[in-house]
Amino acid sequence: MRQSKRLLFLALACLPSVAADLAPTGTLRATFLSGNPVQATIDTSTGAISGPAADIVKELARRAGVPYTITPSNGAKELIERLNARMADIGFLAWEADRARLVDFSGPYLLMGTTYLVPAASPIRTAADADRPGVKIGAVDGNSPTIYLQQHLKNAKVIPWTAAPPYEEMLKMFASGQVDAYAGNRTRLVEAADRYYPAFDFMIRGSKKPQEAIDACLFETVGTA
To answer: Of 122, 144, 135, which Cα lies nearest the Cα of 188?
Structure first.
């Protein structure tokens, strides 16, 4: 089974590439998407931030010889606004053509998988199954998976949501036929499938052998920098 694979890039707020200029205030101020566990996670007990974004910021600050801060942003729009308002110096964001008109992007530093979450009894078992007439796919408006699907689906319809509903509510939406699948960040959807098993399934599961499952993650790369 196939799943899309997205390129994540380090977005720079139109700053020169000279290391010292990355931190014009004397502190390297970074921001990342709070809801994306592929970028970073926040310890609910201590507030500590860990993950690739935190590691990159720490190393950039070390090389520039400056202290740093790293702050979560609630969505791509807020992150871009912080960069362009000079409230942050660098941000972590998936490349999209429209976003590239607003901020500059570095080369890729990470690949992020996206996939579909479906009811366990769903006939949708492959990406091709999802792109059929009459299929309704829920996705959060403005998110990278949503933008990709809106640009590439030929038959299925994307149902944009302002925010992802709770998974309990999503089960009801599946049962009522409001949507047939939910497209999103693979890491989050794997966690949901495990938590709510056997109610949910995600596209990488099924009859695949381990190597086939790994191969299914290697989908076409999208985006350039």
So the answer is: 144
